[in-house]
Structure of MBL fold metallo-hydrolase:
Amino acid sequence: MLTFAFPGQVIDANCYVIAPAVGEECLIVDPGIGVEETLRELLTEHRLRPAAVLLTHGHLDHVYSVTPVCGGDTAAYIHADDAYRLKDPLALISPPLLAMVEQQFGRKATWKEPEHVVDVRDHERLSLAGLDVEVLHAPGHTEGSVLFRMPSVPDGVSDQVDVDSTVISGDVLFAGAIGRTDLPGGSDAAMQRSLRDVVLPLPDTTLVLPGHGPATTMDRERATNPYLQGLTA
């Protein structure tokens, strides 16, 4: 599985490009702020064609570039509970935060709702770009936060760590941390349930690609992440 990861220009939200191989269709996950040029270069260099955009949730730093990426038959896939956020995510953040985003971005933020949006639901299985993806609903950071699980790992990773599957965790689980729950639509109680019922049951051999920060594994997080301690699946 060919996998590329790079941070957006603002708040360092990770964007992922995943494909079976060079010259094939690909999935773009969480195209955030200021990622368009890097995406174009990656797609051109590796002759990749976007088949779909997967969104772990609807926050601006994860969806800002979804409309430029989508077009034609390329749809944006998002959980039904977060689909409303794609109407205008700029209106859902506070003026001071928007001002900070625009200062880092170096230009005024604008938004155009994507034309083709597909609602996904818990445990739905998608077959896109030659890849199998399972949707795991994990509310808490937002109402519609999800993990995308795949039964394969990026090329070369299994030679370095003992992993046999991948989960893109968005802002639910980070290396050593979890997503915040104090923003509109967040819920600490929902996050605790998601950590207990969705995250903890993942096998130790799962590679975790988070929405911010470095990759990790479930084996490492189960042993060291303080937010998973004391929880019982």
Q: What stands out?
A: The first helix runs from residue 36 to 45.
